[in-house]
Amino acid sequence: MAEEVKQAAEEAETQQAAQDTAEKKTERTARTRRKPMHRRKKVCRFCAKNAAPLDYKDTETLRQFISERGKILPRRVTGCCAKHQRAVTTAVKRARHIALLPYMTE
Ligand SMILES: [Zn+2]
């Protein structure tokens, strides 16, 4: 008797799992079918204004390139070109080393 109940429960579970995967599948196809989002082309702000080379002591500027937790933001977020993103990264790391910026925040 108890065995039967167990089996039934198991069956219901597997059915539920199958349904879940089916739902996930439809979700995925819906995601791929979605209209392409219009994104504004980001321009590297350092290239744009011909700014002076980034200074590791300029924490105010550098803070714009780190997340709340103190992580360096990726290029896809900052919109910097490769050259300037590299400059940002080095500057942030230097600033961290002399404790102007945190390595991480809790
Ligand atoms: Zn640039």
Would you kindly provide a written description of the structure presented here, covering whatever features stand out?
- This protein has 2 domains: 1-38; 45-97, Irregular (30s Ribosomal Protein S18).
- 57% of the residues lie in helices and 0% in strands.
- The protein contains 5 helices and no strands.
- The mean pLDDT is 79.
- Residues 44, 46-47, 80-81, 83-84 line the site of zinc ion (ZN).
Walk me through the topology.
Blueprint: H1 2-33, H2 45-48, H3 59-62, H4 75-78, H5 82-97
Bound molecules: zinc ion.
The site of zinc ion has 7 residues, from helix 2 and helix 5.
What is the string of SSEs from the N terminus onward? HHHHH
Q: Give the integer mean of the pLDDT values.
A: 79
Share of residues in helices: 55-70%
Please state roughly what percent of the residues sit in beta strands, choosing from under 5%, 5-15%, 15-25%, 25-35%, 35-45% or over 45%.
under 5%
Ligand types? zinc ion
Number of strands: 0
Shape: flat
CATH fold type of the largest domain: 30s Ribosomal Protein S18
Instruction: Specify the number of helices.
Output: 5
Secondary-structure content class: mainly alpha
Instruction: Describe the main β-sheet briefly.
Output: none
CATH homologous superfamily identity of the largest domain: Ribosomal protein S18
| CATH architect. name of the largest domain | Irregular
- What's the CATH C level of the largest domain? Few Secondary Structures
Radius of gyration: 25 Å
Low confidence ranges: none
Q: Kindly give the count of domains.
A: 2
